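Posting for a labmate who doesn't have an account.
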Amino acid sequence: MNIMLNKKICAEKINDLKKGYCAYAESSYLIRKLKQEILNENLQVIFDYTKGGCFIIPMKKDKGCP
């Protein structure tokens, strides 16, 4: 997948998390990038790993998964 597209997807998922929505990522690259941004933004989340990817669930403002 294109790096610029991954950055855009990562930014969109971080915005969703900030709004209280959960995010899902399948690729290990995207999961790593999201973890970095979550640390940078000091977001409180729970990582729920599955065989197919990872759900990232915010600990505040839970509005569900879009």
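Reply:
Got it, the structure tokens are right above this. The first strand starts at residue 23 and ends at 25.
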